[in-house]
Amino acid sequence: MKTAILFSAANAQLISFGKSCYSPPLIADFDLDRYYGKWWENARTPVSFSGDDDKCGGAEYGPVDASTITVNNSHIIPYSDNSGSGLELQSILGNAKILDANFPNKLLVYFDYGYQLIESRDERANYWIMDTNYDEYSIVMNCEDFGSFSLE
Question: Where is the Lipocalin/cytosolic fatty-acid binding domain (predicted)?
Fold first, then answer.
């Protein structure tokens, strides 16, 4: 089973004052084709788009071209509305793209929310693969420097 340990892959939640981002290690021989498949979330830092009671978080990656893959993120969340309560599967589709062939384990993940124009998308890598063996684990994080503080 493939397991991903996600350290705020998007919408960072850990604020560090007076600290710069850690530089991810270069995986020069990172093989995007071997990264395809279904990955299950094992642990993560808190993120705004996923609550503590979410279950079965995962992502499925598939081919587009030599530097781009499809992303299908999903999780099961509890709900409660006028009709009752239960569990609901939610998912969102997007893509991930290697921005620098010299640093292939840093990708830009982006989702089409129906209003995001490609020209306005931030072109900084936001999905850093820190380590992986392609079959059992992947450690992923994101960090952004804002001068006097960083978001991880």
Answer: 30-141
| Model pTM above 0.90 | no
| Beta strands across the sheet bearing 144-145 | 15-17, 149-151, 144-145
- pLDDT tens digits for 47-76? 656 667 778 888 999 999 999 999 998 989
Task: Write down the pLDDT at residue 64.
Answer: 95
Domains of the chain with bracketed CATH: 3-151 (2.40.128.20)
Dist. CA 72–CA 78, nearest whole Å:
20
| Distant-in-sequence, close-in-space partners of 76: CB < 8 Å, separation ≥ 6 | 54, 55, 56, 87, 88, 89, 90
What whole-number distance in Å separates Cα of residue 91 and Cα of residue 68?
A: 19
Of 30, 53, 148, residue with least CA distance to 100: 30
Return the SS3 of 120: helix
